[in-house]
């Protein structure tokens, strides 16, 4: 799959996941907003009903008090004075019961009628029907009178509440225990079954009551309701309620949406990781192809030279010239060593599949080891009109290392400097050693072409080479620096690179001393 295709696929899928994630987050925010509005509406509806219940309680108390007073007056004995009508007939008895102190003009009258002296058999059917009609009208009139009485009584209670109730202390008007019960029942009726706290205050904010388990948590989102809306402004009072677990209650109601959001995030992260792996695999494939191309070129050159030398040995004239024979033999030997060295570098790949290389540790004088490498490498540097400067100033050069692998590390770094030298400038290679507390530091610096800053972190990667493609001006497999880093790490040391494009590069190795 082409890199551009992967990019397009990644962008499309990434935008799709981000859009899905945005929609889910927007939906959750909208649900939270809706749940907050529903909660607010339920609380306000509950508090309004609580205030109505308190008004009903107050009305009921006045009614009970007034009825009790009326019954007491009605049951007390009243004197009755006899009366004689103008015709001299037996008088009718009238008994009056006052209804209340404020409705003395309204009386319920009971008239004792004289029974008829005629025989029952002489009462006509028509006369009986008239009596039934009169009785029905009398009952209707009595019901009407009772209704008028109750209405007058209620009007009087309302007037008393309006003119007298607000003058009482708030503690006398409200039973706070009943208030707590009303709050709890109304909240439950409206679907709110979570802890709450409340206070009762007057218009000036003075607190008249506070629930026993009151706490301030959640009081920043409180709800206020007037207890008696009909009271005058100067006598008004409030109940203030807040819910400590309101936020948890809101989010618990939408918790079913959180798993889908988490799964979407997991899918998005998995997709990003998959795209990253795809690009990394493609890059690794490109580096391996580069490695194979360079390896083919590296192997082809010594094999061709050996083959040509072998053909020359078949020439009888070569056998007659010992000097020519020795020269050709030396070429075959050198190219064989070169080929063996390249094969060894390829075999080093197996080391990276294991967690740790097999090391034969021994005490080594680093200054002597580096001096030996410099003496061996001087001929190759002088071939390019270069030179090596050695500043081996470490006072304690003793380290506990695998001598062969550390030698290869120093040789690889020097060989790397030769490969990336400037074509128009003579090579200058500087090797320095010095001590830091408990450590030996080795620096190998050159005046080569340098490395771009964006490539510095990649130079120690396996198969990575700063130059790519089929350009063979710089030979190698991209394994040298990866091998160097692994060997230094296996010796409990560190290696870093400092480089500037066009100026040169410096590799700094830090290894623990032998006594540490």
From TrEMBL:
Its EC number is 2.7.13.3. It catalyses: ATP + protein L-histidine = ADP + protein N-phospho-L-histidine. The chain crosses the membrane at residues 6-25, 256-279. Keywords: Kinase, Membrane, Phosphoprotein, Transferase, Transmembrane, Transmembrane helix. Residues 294-515 form the Histidine kinase domain. InterPro entries: BphY/WalK/GraS-like, HATPase_C_sf, HATPase_dom, His_kinase_dom, HisK_dim/P_dom, HisK_dim/P_sf, Sig_transdc_His_kin-like_C. It is an enzyme of class 2 (transferase). CDD domains: HATPase, HisKA. It comes from the Bacteria. It holds the Pfam family HisKA. This is histidine kinase. The lineage of its organism: Bacteria, Pseudomonadati, Bacteroidota, Bacteroidia, Bacteroidales. The gene is rprX.
